[in-house]
Amino acid sequence: MRIVGEFYTSYAVSALLLFCMALAILVTQHFYVPSGYGFTVDKPSPRTYRAVSPIRYTDTVTTNTLKGKVGETVVGVLVRDAGAAERMKTRLAELRNVRDWSSPVNGFPDELARAFFSLKEDRRHALFSYADSVGEAYFEALTSGDMKIETKDRAMLWAEIEKLSLPRTEENLLYQLLEEVVNLSYKVDPQLTALVRDVEKNSIPPVERKLEVGDVIVEQGQTITPQVAIILRLQGYMEENFPLKRLIILFFSMLALPFWLEISAGVGEARDRPTWSCIVFIFIVGWAGETMATHWDVIGAGLLASVTAAYLCIPRRLAFNVCLAETVSLVFLLEELSIYSLLSLLILGFVAIMTGFYALHKVVSREDLRYKVFFLAIFLAVAKILIRYFQGFPITVASLGLGWPLGETWRVCGSFLIFELATTFFVIAVLPMIEGYLGALSILRTRELSHPSSPLLRKLQNEAPGTYHHSLMIGALAEAVAEDLG
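RE: above sequence
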């Protein structure tokens, strides 16, 4: 129990170091990566975004523009005022019964009243009669549909008045009288106009567009509109904001890591448990390698280094779960990737972990390790191309061209393979120098120490040959039992 307690206590410092490493990577990506990857609405695009999967979407901008143009065609809805003619007759009758035009008339202009007062009574009554007939003709024309839209100058009134062949003065008085008593028979109804506009707008079907893999969503420098932002979110691209939520998730994930390893691999009960320094080293190798790989556009090329270090330094079953936890944590650590790129990363990580589980189980020498790592890298490069193919990136004759410039498939495969081999061989070269500081004993170091030509075994053979041969026989028996037990 004391050993288990020490195991978890020693993790506190390691977890703090791991969290600080995650914080440093996130802050560096957010503030100091010059190219920028996250987008912000209504600001220039930091890079050219392309579709990573086929998608159909509704072009709301074009749809709304079309609806707006259709709405503008509806100028207004005219409604007929059925009581306008009766009100005109009533008003004319009231004015005809006025006896004293010298005093102000209710609702009638004073200048027009004085003009009527200056006329003889018979001419006044004649003008009222003319006004009645012209008004009736005017409203009948409106009812018949001869006049679609009334104009302010009442051109139709003038046309009816001119048919009477009156003196110009009386024509002017008659027109002014009708201007006062004739209300617009048709008027624009704002509520009906808004309703008809809405009906016309809703009759426009949504404009749908399709993006294929590789199609440009927005060019670098163009403004990220709300419509473009929706498409980028659907494609899994991240917005430009400080990754506080991911930092919190990583923090609690680091706290839960020892419990996950105990449940999945029995860490708390194993006598040969590794130090947390070794596990933290594996995480840091994976995080740093994949961060650089992602920044250089070779997603997934930084995974093999951490997988190789894990299977060399810690027990096989535990190494599987450590690598699995480290790969999943990359989802919350990398802010440069879309959802589909993260999915590709997870698939590649799982393939690397599974192949390493079987290929790196028995490493007899450094030459054997280099041989296995080389073929593992080729296998993962092929897996990378296949994953891209199933995500919609076609393998065409042009992409397989060997001329200059190289085809897309060879370029992706070659850059992936070079980065993967470089980082993995670098870790293999550095590992013997830092094993002691990590408290780990790699398979290679164990092989070297168990070789008969090692100085320690030669000394044991010379000074205690019986013990040496007895140890060899016990070791052979133990190995045979271990192989039978699996």
